[in-house]
Amino acid sequence: MDYNFTIITPDNTLLDKRMVRLYERLEKKYETRLVPFDEKVTAGEKSNVFVLPFSLTPQKTNEIKRGIPENSTTFGGSITEGAKEIAMAKSIRHINILTDEEFCLENALITAEATLSLLISSTEACLYGMRIAVFG
């Protein structure tokens, strides 16, 4: 089976380095497109694999699922019951990568590093001795 990927980005700018890295890796081997989620997902009709942003409103998740072609596969976080019903009706396989322990550990490390980077660059105080909790 040939895979064609559509990565649905949170907006027109690719601020999330994970999505950029994913795009760069996929485009070397597969036909890969980037689509901002305010654009109609039907723009990716010839894609059969869709990567969704993690933070979507239930309404937006349902809208995206409606635009995804039948018999496709989607990767992302958890989805609403409405989106699950749409996926079942269209034979869309959804993989919740937030249930993958290895992915979650790596994602937590990236999140913690990014948070510390922001803390260090935006404060003049020394972090040593501060009471800081970082959750990934």
Order of secondary-structure elements: EHEEHEHEH
- The whole-angstrom Rg is 17 Å
How many beta-strand segments?
Answer: 5
Strand order in space, largest sheet: 2-1-3-4-5
What is the beta-strand fraction? 15-25%
Global shape: elongated
Mean pLDDT: 80
How is the topology of this model organized?
Blueprint: E1 4-9, H1 17-29, E2 31-36, E3 49-51, H2 58-67, E4 73-76, H3 81-89, E5 93-96, H4 101-122
Parallel strand pairs: 1-2, 1-3, 3-4, 4-5
Helix pairs in contact: 2-3
Task: Describe this entry's structure for a reader.
Helix 2 (58-67) runs parallel beside helix 3. A five-stranded parallel beta sheet has the order 2-1-3-4-5, sandwiched between helices. It is of the alpha/beta class. It is built from four helices and five strands.
List keywords for this structure.
five-stranded parallel sheet, 17% strand, 136 residues, 5 strands, elongated, alpha/beta
In short:
The chain is about 40% helix and about 15% strand. With about 140 residues, it is of the alpha/beta class.
